[in-house]
Design a protein that fits this description.
There is one protein chain. With 575 residues, this protein is α/β, with parallel strands linked by helices. Helix content is 36%, strand content 20%. It is built from 19 helices and 20 strands. The chain has helices spanning 19-32, 78-84, 117-123, 130-141, 149-156, 159-173, 196-206, 221-229, 231-234, 244-256, 267-283, 310-315, 331-348, 358-362, 430-447, 473-486, 514-520, 536-545, 563-572, and strands at 6-15, 36-42, 49-59, 70-75, 88-97, 112-115, 192-195, 211-214, 237-240, 261-265, 287-293, 324-327, 351-357, 364-367, 455-458, 464-469, 500-505, 507-509, 525-530, 551-554. It is globular, with a radius of gyration of 26 Å.
Amino acid sequence: MERPDRLAILIGGSAGQGMDSLTAVLEKHLQRIGYWTFTTRDYMSRVRGGHNFNQTLFGTSPLHSPSKGSDAVIALDAATVELHLGDLAPDGLLLVDAAVALPLSAAGDARVHRLPLKETATASGSPKTEGTVALGALLASLGLPLEGLAPILAGHFPPEIAEKNVSALQAGAALAPVHRDAPCCVDPKGRILVNGNEAVALGALAAGCRFYSAYPMTPSTSIMNALAGWMDSGRILVEQAEDEIAAINMAVGASYAGVRAMTGTSGGGFCLMVEALGLAGMLEVPLVVADIQRPGPVTGFPTRTEQGDLRFVVSASHGEFPRLVVSLRSPADAFRQTVRAFDLADRFRIPVILLGDQFLADTTVTVPPFDVDGIVVDRHFGTPDETGGFRTYALTEDGISPRRVPGTPGVRVCVDSDEHDEYGRITESAEDRVAMTRKRMRKEEGLAAFLEEPEFLGDPDYDILLLCWGSTREPVVDALARLARQKDAPRGPDAPAPRYAALAFGDVWPLPQKELLSRFAQAKSLVDVEQNATGQFAALVRETTGLVCDRKLLKYDGRPLSGEWIAERLEGGDE
């Protein structure tokens, strides 16, 4: 039987049963022995109970989106059997403890293997290692090595617990019920394992961020957790504020004092930040804000994914001031765009908003190491004018006033949230108001030269052009590959296979238009793909360019997009 090029392993159970630890050990092992991996996490907003599951794909080439089905399942409870048996591959295997009462749907199913997992775990030193026993059985069933797992377990658990898990792993391997070939291992070539939020945190460190303040809010919290873990090595101060209002005001204050500063939150927390966002715009203080989206309104689906904040962040805070909104497309893109965000925030003295989402934040993938060699940290500070004073808001041709920080010898730096003159003094002059508004808005003209056009993906001879933004880029890549394979399937002479391509946007406000307008000229149909109920990006495109999408593929159930989902709807015509 020919080896597959990829397999999907699902680990399911109730919160508190150790699925995350088990998945972390599995994906790290697969990455170290040479596979590309891709892990998504589906979890409920509760500490214990409920049904949670993680799915890890691994294979011989980069992976971009979750799979609808799985090839192997470790079921830590009966609910996992009932919910996921229907999506198990015909030649798949499901491992479950012999004492678990199975649903009727599993009766007589040869793919279901009832093993003495808990009994074996107890004999190995601890009943809590039941999942590790199952992992050992699964790895042995797939012909995957156990060598290398001991140091991973030692890095994940205290020594005594790690030792019990190693024993459980070996005992589990002896229970392997079947043998099935896994994909061939490939050279790991030094790849790293990282999720989207970790990539943002690493990008902030690489950009010279020295202050991060936030209030915990799923799914943004892991940015703060990662940076807090690197406070000493990364030379950064991380402050858990009492709320989101305090968090953004701390970041504004730190930036005013001359430190590269950042804050992060999700949609509900961003709602609380909007007045201080306007403060950064009026003070012309550089600021980077990460909004890691989740479904709303209000509490919504706290642990799920969506792209529902786009129109909100584009216009957040009253009044008018320039800003840059960048959507993050992948962990590698998140790292690079975070570095870029700090540079552009300093260069133009504006807020830069990074839009992520739970799918990107929690999905762990193997990627080549991030390139840090070309990163240059330029703070773009100005100098005092010839009179020895300092016009904090000097009326410059490009709208960018030279910047100094308070405490600079011989320089007085004045700022105010009220409208002000060039020296930062409060004014109610109509002339000053017009001059300052025009000065601030002139920054958009310069910013336009730094906007990045969307990435073109797919068939150059396309007739159907997809539009996507942010993390939808990854499942669209998967969908395009599937559709490219399907175009060679036999069809009637009067029904040629459509050819697909896509534009994947990173910068979304101001919207770069050159590539879009150029590519649109060839397209017979324009299709919007995004994760919200109203097609927010399609509306933004229509507002700024006049282009109208013929179809919209919108998903807003809180679960991530997949290449299969997109391809099926494009081929079948379903919305």
